[in-house]
Amino acid sequence: MRLAPIYLILPVFLLGCSSSHHEFEGKKSEKAVILELEKIIAEKLPKNRSISGAIVKGDKIIWSKAFGISNLKTQSLADTASIYRIGSISKPFTAFLMMLLVQDRVINLDDPVELYFPEIKKLNGYSEATKITFQQLATHTSGLMREPELPNAASGSIEEWESKILEAIPTTSFESKPGEKFSYSNIGYGILGLALSKAAQKPFIELIEKRIFEPLNMNSSYFAVPKEKLSDLSTGIQDSDGKMDVKTPLLEHSGRGYKVPNGGIYSTPNDLAKFMIYNMGTSSNLVSGENLEMMQNEITGIGERNYYGIGFFVNRRDQLTIINHGGAVAGYTANFAFARANKYGIILMRNYSQGEPDIWELPFELLEALNKVKQ
């Protein structure tokens, strides 16, 4: 599995990897666990790369730190203001927006999307028997293929993303019947974002900014990094066949075509921590507690002890259920994981695509270790 490009693989951020950080074993205090995390990162971080992270406990950020080089050209060090692409961690934001519109009674989860977005009828193979609901798009049970067959669907400026979706729809086919099984679909989430925009009669990006970023004071989260913040943007490094590629990640900053609702956000660990705190149910209400619980329920089975809710993966470990989503795009990888049972959560973000430390499994093992410490 590790031989394929990491940004094309779902299981790396669904199931974690096989490596195990036994260094956490025997750590009996919160401080000892966090110090061990710092040691793992410092020892395994490759040269000229960076990792930034934050740990949440309840409604507070209890640890936030950055390691390594953020900007290759200037050799500036990463800090807690360093900005990274979060890739598919954008999907929980789109799902969260959907639940807000459900609460507003703009849509219902089981509404056919065609009621608000009739262009969906141009899907290859669409029929009366393959009508898709909002919940099916949000739970990856729409039956749609992972990516459209439109050439260059994932290139083009952010201003063009809606037109790219419309172009991509006729090149998108069904791999299974809607509601039949889990099948991860990036184009499905792209369609979801545009359908929500049409239902609310407002631009998708504006909805995310006004309904989520602003209420949660996420002041370092963007779909396009402002010019005055570009100095904080970490250099993305795509590792391919042992070679370091900075051109591909740089090119993608100018736009990724249709991939806005499913992978378009830039952020920092501290900003994502604000979103995490809310999703753990420790902050004031935007989405109701009932709807948050629905998002984090085991709605669709994926594999042994793994499920998908609405916008989140649900991973049953031996003694802890972890809610998470990972993100992997050219030059950037991130993981967002929390356990509502003990109110701990961790965000790790890095500006490279492959290598140690294991960003997929490390947050899971850290949360398990924190679950065992004396409070």
TrEMBL record:
First and last residue of the signal peptide: 1-23
Domain of life per record: Bacteria
Residue span(s) of domain Beta-lactamase-related: 48-357
This protein's record includes keyword Signal: yes
Assigned keywords, A-Z: Signal
UniProt cross-references to Pfam families, sorted A to Z: Beta-lactamase
Transferase found in the keyword field: no
Family named by the database record: Belongs to the beta-lactamase family.
Protein's name in the database: CubicO group peptidase, beta-lactamase class C family
The species this protein was found in: Pedobacter caeni
Species classification: Bacteria, Pseudomonadati, Bacteroidota, Sphingobacteriia, Sphingobacteriales
